[in-house]
Write a structure and sequence with these properties.
single chain, alpha/beta, Glutaredoxin, five-stranded mixed β-sheet, two-stranded antiparallel ribbon, 5 helices, 30% helix, globular
Amino acid sequence: MWQVWVFLAPLCPICQDYTYYLNALHEQWSAAEEPQVELIGWFPNPTVTDEAIAEFANRYAVDWELARDTIGWSEAVGAQFTPEAVLVSPDGEVVYRGRVNDLYYALGKHRSTPRSSDLALAVEQALGGLPVVPAETDAIGCPIQSRISYHPDAGGQRVHLGEFLQLHD
């Protein structure tokens, strides 16, 4: 199964704004006759508590999976901002990294509606067997200032993207 990982911070106003778009994408992908995309929100800052994540989910009506990034996925895939999206193939290959859409075009500057739905386009291209173009866009958001370093041996067991996806299916 394809996975979309979105790195989030509960107090980042840009993350808060993007939950509307992410909720809509989750609804669209889940409504498919045979869902092929799973959406997961990772919180890379190690000080974020499970309670803060639950409050974020409740406040922004998030019913897709949210979790603390205890393995260091944000570092492993090169995410620098929240929110930043990553599309991971069933084989564990990162085929897209960047913004959800262009609602924000600079820090603190946003449009009333986005003009480009970059993440949705990347998913559409990938599911259609096409190369994802562009494979990377610039995410606008709150910098990830504190994160857990990537530990493929987390929990005494080697974990790599492809293996994680197989275990998570």
